[in-house]
Amino acid sequence: MSAQSRSSESGLNLELGVLVGFDGSELAAQAVRYGAVEAERRRTVLTVVTAYELPTMIYPNMASIPSEPEDDKAKTEAEKTLAEAVELLRDYPGETSFRTTAGNSAGALVTLSADAEVVIVGARGRGGFMGRVLGSVSTALPAHSHCPTIVVPERSTSESPGEGAVVVAVDGSDAGRVAMFTAAAEAATREADLELVAVLPAGEEWLYWYPDLELSSEVTSRRRKQLAEGLGKEAATLSEQFPDLAVTTSVPVGDPTETLVEISARAQLTVMGTRGRGRIRSALLGSVSRGVLNHAEGPVMVVPS
């Protein structure tokens, strides 16, 4: 099923433009509405996809073979679900494309993300998009996507927040720096301020693991100052590339996950890399990124390394 499928008008020239996964759930509908605003902002096509899994067809005898092939039935059900998205976007003035695709939901979106500027999903959904705390697609997709992923949480108070800064978590890692430049471009597109945040873990967290370590308010203050100076240099670099972008910095002290979750409530978009300087750097989706996605109160963008 498709409609108005033309090549992207954006500078990236990726034919799927803004890609949204849709399964008929209310949160998926929220993701579609969020995606519509994003596509208009980027001046590109909005592509909505419903995935369906092909059933394993094993029949003990001829009598048990259904009159309608099960793969055809699965596709028909997916098309009915996708029709709900078509109705949602009935008054949307921009370019749209609607399609169904066979396969696992997360895997299908990962494959399609290679031809998209950004992919958007709800934090949880129905059926193939439903997970436990955070939907399976919402965790697997950011870890493997070829383009940035925006996860719209159930707790988000607005489908298309237009106020507040774009906030990016910076930790000195390569992934964090890629996220920083992506966030700067996103803030420029949204005509929003950009805030660089480096969270300094509280001293008591270190003392739990290293009780013999000498920590004091003086040490914390000195380290905080060092981080602030580093962020200042990064902000200066961004200002050279984005002269109209207002960039601020902050170095809060506390648990990184909890701090970023709190920030997500006031930010119009919180941006992170897939992984940072954690103990398990090989993990596809870092513990902080996963934790923020689980509890965020606003949309979160995860940028692939």
Automatic annotation (TrEMBL):
Residues covered by the UspA domain: 18-153, 166-304
InterPro entries, A to Z: Rossmann-like_a/b/a_fold, Universal_stress_UspA, UspA
Residues passing through the membrane, by range: none
Listed Pfam families: Usp
Family that this chain belongs to: Belongs to the universal stress protein A family.
Name of the molecule in the record: Nucleotide-binding universal stress protein, UspA family
Species annotation: Brevibacterium siliguriense
Lineage: Bacteria, Bacillati, Actinomycetota, Actinomycetes, Micrococcales
